[in-house]
Amino acid sequence: MEKKFFKDLVLAPSPSGFEQPAQEVYRNYVKGLADEVKTDVHGNVIALKKGTGKLRLMVVGHADEIGLMIHYIDENGFLRFKPVGGVDPSLLPGLRVNLYHNGKVVRGVIGRKPIHLLEPDERTKAPKLEDLWIDIGAKDKKTAEKKVSIGDIVTFSPGMEMLSSDFVTTKATDNKAGVYVAGAVLKELAAEKVVPNVYAVSSVQEEIGLRGAITSAFGIDPHIGIAIDVTHATDYPGLNKALLGECSLGKGPAIVVGANINPKVFQLLKKAAEKAKIEYQVEAAPRGTGTDANAIQTTRSGVAAGLVSIPNRYMHTPNEIISFKDLDGAVKIIVEFIRMIDDKTDFIPKV
Ligand SMILES: [Zn+2]
Fold first, then answer.
1. How far is the C-alpha of 209 from the C-alpha of 216, rounded, in Å?
2. Tell me, what's the pLDDT at 102?
3. Distance between CA atoms of 212 and 264, rounded to whole angstroms?
4. What is the pLDDT, as a whole number, of residue 142?
5. Distance, CA of 227 to CA of 334 (rounded, Å)
6. Domain coordinates of the chain in residue numbers?
7. How far is the CA of 176 from the centre of ligand 1 (A)?
8. Separation of 309 CA from ligand 1 center, angstroms?
9. Residue 262: its pLDDT value, please?
10. Chain-wide mean pLDDT for the chain?
11. Annotated active-site residue in 19, 188, 206, 336
12. Where are the beta strands (DSSP E) in 171-319?
């Protein structure tokens, strides 16, 4: 486990559209491991390890995280914001947050009326985003404007802690976990010759519509595309396994099966896991998934897509939890998968 690489990724601020601090971490990590590293005009970072064969294989994790964006500063210096991606307003009151202004960090607090002052019906309802504000300690609009501007982005407080020897908590494991795996696959293969040309991609803007996967997959024109993203663990209180299926932290990454996944890719990923002796889970996804795999599969005339999911507790909250063992497992499975394919591997679905 390359703990420092993971930590640098999760701590880098990267709400959708503003990913470059995380992309810089990725570029620095892969530059010695790839034959070429380029950043496209959309902001995707594409690291190519050339193979001896012709197939192009894309491995991708999205670098963007959810966050907030300042859109209004009131007369008293309080900041109003819009969500970047899927933000749950009930989690926000009371948080300390980081605002990023011209490369500087400004600290703030998300305010809400205290319980004593809430009307009886307000006490039982979750707040709406428009009921909340960020307080940066400015005495009025003018003072606030010296520290922040409209369009500045905001992230949950960065920080990473081990809760056990294996479980880590931090913001944005969704989906720095996937970026980590893309980079770590290159590291693992560094001393090897491989047949497929491996494009290890850190994509942008997944949280707002898989947008970086659309552009990067079009540019790479891959034959095979494996996305790595987080999935909901269902091993904590209040989740109905009859409805959501079973997925636990620490029991290995989940290999996804369903319409979004090429059947041969699914079979080979399972075989790769067995060969590498990595514990894995299977996740059923009967339709298009909400991941980069969805955009990749429907690129041009179709791509053989696969999806490896890292179980994640409390997705899109300031403190998500994943298992490092699951992360390592995902790297090993994908590395073994890459070793198993060559130009003759046939991905056309048939009986
Ligand atoms: Zn997400």
1. 14
2. 95
3. 25
4. 98
5. 10
6. 3-65+171-340, 70-156
7. 10
8. 12
9. 98
10. 97
11. 206
12. 197-203, 224-232, 254-257, 281-284, 304-312
Q: Give 160-172 as a DSSP string.
A: EEESSSSEEEETT
pLDDT at 65: 98
| CB-CB contact of 106 with 145 (8 Å) | no
| Cα–Cα distance measured from residue 96 to residue 158, given in angstroms and rounded to the nearest whole number | 10
Order of strands, edge to edge, in the sheet holding 167-170? 160-162, 167-170, 320-323
Residue 158's pLDDT is: 85
Write down the architecture of domain 70-156 according to CATH: Beta Barrel (2.40)
Within 13 A of 24's CA, how many CA atoms are on the CB side? Answer: 9
Cα 272 to Cα 88: distance, rounded to the nearest angstrom: 37
- CA 228 to ligand 1 center in whole angstroms: 12
The answer to whether the predicted template modeling score (pTM) of the entire model surpasses 0.70 is yes
d(CA 169, CA 172): 9
3-class state of residue 289 by DSSP: coil
Fold designation for 3-65+171-340: Aminopeptidase (3.40.630)
Query: Tens digit of pLDDT for each residue in 174-217?
Result: 999 999 999 999 999 999 999 999 999 999 999 999 999 999 99
Rg, the chain, Cα only: 21
Q: How far is CA 117 from CA 108, 131, 132, in A?
A: 22, 14, 15
CA 230 to chain centroid: 7
Token pair belonging to 4? 């420092």
Token couple for 102: 């011209």
Active-site residue flag, 206: yes
What pLDDT sits at residue 79?
98
139 Cα to the center of ligand 1, angstroms: 35
- Cα 46 to averaged position of ligand 1 atoms, centre (Å): 21
Q: Tell which residue, 260, 341, 59, 337, has the closest CA to residue 178.
A: 59
Are 228 and 177 in contact by the 8 Å Cβ rule? The answer is yes
Rounded distance, CA 198 to CA 38, Å?
14
Burial of 168 (0-12, 13-18, 19+ CB in 10 A): buried
Residues of the chain with pLDDT under 50: none
